[in-house]
Amino acid sequence: MDASKSEIESCLVDENLVSWFVMVKFEGVSKKFGNIIALSDISFEAEDGEFVFITGPSGSGKTTLLRLLMRELLPDHGKIIVGKQDIVKLEDKEVPSYRQGMGVVFQDFKVLPERTVRENVEVALAVINIPQKEWISRVDHVLKLVGLMERAELFPSQLSGGEIQRVSLARALVVNPKIIIADEPTGNLDWETATQIMDLFEKINKEGKTIFVASHHEAIIKKMGKRVVKLKGGKLVK
Fold first, then answer.
1. Dihedral (Cα; 208, 11, 204, 73), 10-degree rounding
2. N or C: less crowded end of the chain, CB within 10 Å?
3. What is the mean pLDDT of the chain?
4. Distance CA 138, CA 7 (A)
5. 148 to each of 63, 109, 141, 159, 193, how far by Cα in Å?
6. Looking at the DSSP assignment, which residues form a beta bridge with residue 235?
7. What is each CA distance from 48 to 6, 24, 61, 85, 182, in whole angstroms?
8. Residue from 189, 196, 192 nearest 106 by CA
9. Cα separation of 72 and 57, whole Å?
10. pTM higher than 0.85 for the full model?
11. Do the Cβ atoms of 37 and 75 come closer than 8 Å?
């Protein structure tokens, strides 16, 4: 499962699409859903290349924070600075280009059951219009990175939960994102498999990616020894 830096670099999307310097800053961010306060006056910074856990009990605002960073939601108040731009002020037509600098990994995987492992990863390249002649080399590299090259032609129903999560991670990586966002990526996995997945995240982080992982898995967070942003009741407590 080891991969050199050159293997990851060879998966590059046109750097003009993702060339912004990554430094994330939340400034006084608040978000409500009706009368429910999801986030209240949240402020923190993450430097380029940091690995940050967003943690807290269910309902604390973890997923809302990530959705704001992905620009799926807009805050009621505050700024969200990524690189040099306040993404709150992006026009709708600018959002797809912004998201091309991100790779997203979900707890429920969101893989396509009727597509093979390779085809699931290729979908990410198709979405951003990478020429099809480049797909094989790009996909091969990320599948080697996550240890799935020998399963490239299998379908999700033929894989374990940990392997499906690796498919999701490979799909996020194939576009060479500057930021990786993962929402409870180990939530449905046993300890050994969860540890393997987090080891992959750490390897990717060492290649310069900025990583945000929402998790309530305290043992995993303690084991990783990374920076923690802790939420409770929509407020920043650590």
1. 80
2. C
3. 88
4. 9
5. 28, 15, 10, 10, 14
6. 232
7. 20, 8, 23, 15, 17
8. 189
9. 22
10. no
11. no
